[in-house]
Design brief:
heterodimer, A: Pyruvate-ferredoxin Oxidoreductase, domain 3, 6-stranded mixed beta sheet, 6 strands, B: alpha/beta, Rossmann fold, 4 domains, 5-stranded mixed beta sheet
């Protein structure tokens, strides 16, 4: 009997949440889970807030995670992480890319971008644990900000029991061939920078 | 062997497995990927038609000729194609015709959340509704069988959540290569296919008879099934909502409908006989619920689950708890207080060419009657430069109506290239024919951008990658008889402003083609610009163009180098010359 694991992705349109959540779903499939995944694209691509849901389990019905059910939150952007406290299951882990993308109201000087500790308080207040990941910094070091999501995936993988070879294989199979090595490097970097605390 | 597929990928796969060879569509979220994926299978012909009505007619013609055809569209696309749905319902067809229709509860990417199940009853055609990707694949095969058995187009209904969710799909053997069949003579049968009144009248009873037979089929098809459970609650549901309901009512008896029109009266009565309380759970309108009530069966439905917005397992659970259908949580969970956070609505991309045009319209305080596409985001703050948007192609007729009444404002219609080909040509001709003096601006980014960069008659490529002559919008306008036609580069602010002023003053119909390729599509990227804070006087011009890399900071503005693509438009409108490329010393080159 496979245990249920629900993952929620949050980010900004264009950050690559769809590709990374596809890899996660594929890892689940290869490890024998029933998997479902959901996201909405279209209008929201244009710099808007985006979300993806991935569910692993023995038998999964709904393709979306229920409020209070997410075991992991993978946030590609800090403000976007703070929108999802009501989705966290007790003890959920929020893996957050330390990266800010200013929304229009902040650009216009009408609102303030929340402080890091405020974001953390919102999520811990809902019973979650926060794990900051230097995804953007690592990605820029590797030469492309778009790799940040795969760094986060590496960080997530260190907290799960599935064999590392399956992850690496799935990353290699799903990213464009010419960026395969770079993505595997980003994945390994994320995995290595994470010390599981459970 | 199983593969993870989205609902839309699975529809395409099912169509291929079913032997469908012709596919036509106009892109529209959430249906776009159906024909996009179908086009990649061997031995098929697929096209982007200029609109959904054309796509449907192409499908009808293919099926008249004995081919098997697939047509796909979003819910509002069915409004455009409705006439074709109604005539094909009367004529039937020789080969199978499957229509996949994607509703958008929650309006993720649409102007309304109409419930297109009504079209099935309206046009008297059967409608199927799968609940995951495996069922999506199978539904196309079954739809084709029904179409060919009952001589009717068959609509398969999906929703955004099904189309854009992924789940496991069983892979099947590829379709064997067949030698293309020799063309056969077209079967002429005027009394069946020429819907003049004398021939159409005798078709109507045929259609009513067909509906009776389909209702009998609905009782026995495995698409509809009773899933036994306890005798307390009997849930009637369909589509992806079935998956949600299964989580909320794990022990209930279910009538799972894979065919939502016509409905199986016998199965509904059987379910009602098994349980103490019938509950219909359906997104949007009480389509199933009203039918159940007409059978004299008491049921819960819209009194519990609203007719507005998208459902989710959580929403269904909360509604069911409030109505006492299921117990509330054992111990009330501490309510999570939702933080007040800055919103992040979609907006024009960094460096988007549409921005220049809308900024000019804003500065000139023009009333702009708009249309559907990326450029509808010109209505968003801080540009606030579009003032109506209703449906594809509406802009040109609307500006003509406004101008006939006459308002103090300068007025224009704003329409995108693909939208213009979809539904702008006929109103443009009408404008000219009726001696109007309105101004039409076509914002031409050389691709159907919003739905993910599909080709269109202006791009020089077909869906399947073949070269085709570019249809030039300025030449088309001149061909109609427009004398005043100008092509501008939207980044050239002064020229754009002067051209708009000139056109709105003129006493003849006119067209401005604001043309620059979508920067996202051509992946144009120049070095990011920087702000010289010494020169910046905080006038706010650059902030007012609403380009996401530009942020107001203490004592000036700053440009996020990761987001900026270096288009230079902000530099064009900066009153102090404070924005420019970075020089070696870290200042600007201006």
């Amino acid at each position: 009997m496979k245990k249920k694991i629900d993952f929620l992705f949050a980010g900004v349109g264009g950050q690559g949440t769809i590709l990374v959540s596809n890899i996660l779903a594929e890892v689940g499939r290869r490890c024998g889970y029933d998997v479902k995944k959901s996201e909405v694209h279209g209008m929201s691509q244009r710099g808007g807030a985006v979300e993806s849901h991935v569910r692993w389990g023995e038998k999964v019905y709904a393709p979306v995670v229920e409020e209070g059910g997410a075991d992991f939150l993978l946030a590609f952007e800090m403000l976007e992480a703070a929108r999802w406290p009501h989705y966290l299951a007790p003890g959920a882990i929020a893996i957050i890319n330390r990266h800010r993308v200013m929304p229009p109201s902040v650009n216009l000087g009408k609102e303030k971008y929340p402080e890091e500790k405020e974001i953390e308080a919102i999520l811990t207040g809902a019973g979650g644990q926060v794990s900051w990941v230097e995804g953007a910094a690592k990605a820029l070091e590797l030469g492309n900000l778009a790799l940040a999501g795969v760094v986060l995936l590496g960080a997530l993988s260190a907290r799960l029991d599935e064999p590392v070879e399956v992850w690496v294989q799935a990353v290699g199979d799903l990213v464009p061939a010419k960026f395969k090595d770079l993505n595997v490097k980003a994945f390994q970097a994320g995995r290595e920078m994470t010390v599981p605390n459970n | 062997m199983k593969k993870i597929m989205s609902g839309n990928e699975a529809f395409a796969y099912g169509a291929y497995l079913a032997g469908i060879k012709i596919g036509a569509a106009y892109p529209g979220t959430p249906s776009t990927e159906i024909i996009d994926n179908f086009s990649k299978y061997p031995g098929v012909y697929a096209e982007w038609s200029t609109n959904e009505k054309v796509a449907f007619d192409v499908g009808a013609g293919a099926a008249y000729a004995g081919g098997r055809a697939l047509v796909a569209m979003k819910h509002v696309g069915m409004n455009v194609a409705a006439e074709a749905l109604f005539y094909t319902s009367y004529t039937g067809m020789k080969g199978g015709l499957v229509v996949i229709n994607a509703d958008d509860p929650g309006m993720h990417s649409s102007q309304n959340e109409q419930d297109n199940r009504h079209y099935a009853r309206f046009a008297k055609v059967p409608m199927l509704e799968p609940s995951d990707s495996e069922e999506a694949k199978e539904s196309v095969k079954v739809a084709l069988e029904i179409s060919e058995t009952f001589d009717t187009p068959v609509v398969v209904r999906t929703t955004t959540r099904l189309s854009h969710s992924l789940s496991l799909v069983e892979m099947e053997d590829p379709v064997a290569d067949e030698a293309p069949a020799e063309p056969v003579a077209y079967e002429r049968n005027a009394s069946k296919y020429v819907m003049v009144p004398a021939y159409a009248r005798p078709r109507h009873p045929v259609i009513e008879e067909r509906l009776k037979k389909l209702a009998e089929f609905a009782e026995t098809t495995p698409l509809n099934r009773i899933e036994p459970g306890d005798d307390q609650i009997g849930v009637i549901t369909s589509g992806v909502v079935y998956q949600y309901a299964r989580e909320v009512f794990p022990n209930a008896t279910f009538l799972k409908l894979g065919m939502v029109y016509p409905l199986p009266n016998g199965l509904i009565r059987e379910l009602a006989g098994r349980v103490k309380q019938v509950v219909v759970i359906e997104e949007l309108d009480p389509f199933i619920e009203e039918h159940v009530r007409l059978l004299g069966i008491q049921t819960r439905g819209k009194d519990v689950f609203p007719n507005i917005g998208e459902f989710s397992p959580g929403r269904i659970r909360r509604c069911a708890q409030e109505a006492g259908l299921i117990p509330g949580p054992d111990q009330p969970t501490a309510a999570v207080t939702m933080p007040q956070l800055p919103g992040r609505p979609p907006m024009l991309c960094p460096g988007c060419g549409h921005r220049g045009l809308f900024y000019a319209l804003q500065r000139l305080n023009v009333a702009a009657f708009g249309d559907i596409g990326c450029y509808t985001l010109g209505a968003a703050p801080p540009l606030n430069a579009m003032h109506t948007c209703g449906c594809m192609g509406a802009s040109i007729g609307v500006v003509q109506g406004v101008d006939r009444v006459g308002v103090k404002d300068r007025t224009v219609a704003v329409i995108g290239d693909s939208t213009f080909f979809h539904a702008g040509v006929a109103p443009l001709i009408s404008l000219k024919y009726n001696n109007s003096t309105s101004t039409v601006i076509v914002v031409d980014n050389r691709v159907t951008a919003m739905t993910g960069h599909q080709d269109n008659p202006g791009t020089g490529k077909t869906l399947q990658g073949a070269d085709t002559p570019v249809i030039k919008i300025d030449e088309l306008a001149r061909g109609i008889g427009f004398k005043k036609v100008d092509v501008v580069n939207p980044y050239e602010f002064r020229t754009v402003v002067d051209t708009i002023k000139d056109h709105v003053q003129s006493k003849e119909p006119s067209l401005i083609l604001a043309q620059y390729p979508c920067v996202l599509n051509i992946r144009e990227r120049k070095p990011a610009l920087v702000v010289d804070v010494e020169k910046c006087n905080e006038c706010g011009n650059c902030i007012r163009i609403g380009c996401s890399p530009i942020t107001k900071v203490e004592g000036g503005v700053s440009i996020n180098a990761e987001l900026c693509i270096g288009c230079g438009f902000c530099a064009t409108i900066c009153s102090q010359g404070a924005i420019g490329p970075q020089n070696k010393e870290g200042g600007t080159d201006q």
